[in-house]
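The instructor's notes for this session suggest beginning with a concrete chain rather than abstract definitions. Hand out the sequence below and ask the class to guess, before any prediction is shown, which regions might be ordered.
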Amino acid sequence: MPYALAMNWVHWVTRIHRGVYRSTGGRVGARINGLEMVLLTTMGRKSGQPRTLPLACFRDGEDWIVVASNDGQDFHPAWWLNLQANPRAEAQLGRETRSIVAHEATDDDRARLWPWLKQQNSVYTKYEKKTDRRIPVVVLRKA
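After discussion, reveal the predicted structure:
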């Protein structure tokens, strides 16, 4: 499937997922293929408009962890660029919504988290091999 067609399909699936997740208050769509999903709402760094998308999410104590893998592409996903410009955002995990402040995991935290994340979601190993960039591990901390 050509990349542009695949991205169009992903766009529509993401849109449907986000709508179902929101309309059910997180009762449907909060878990897919055994992974918890967070709805992350960032502020567009160019548009200034809110941007919401579902991402696989992992709990680390009180923090929620997401991975800026961008399917192993050689560039960062827009949501991570948005968080770098403005780390304050909103996240919904299941029925819980919280204001968060995002930051990239420290080297020590990444050394601890990255092997564990790859065990939790094996596609991260595939993405890591596909790109030369260091895939950011992003900590969503309650504001």
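Then share the key points. The mean pLDDT is 93. Helices lie at 3-23, 78-85, 107-120, 123-130.
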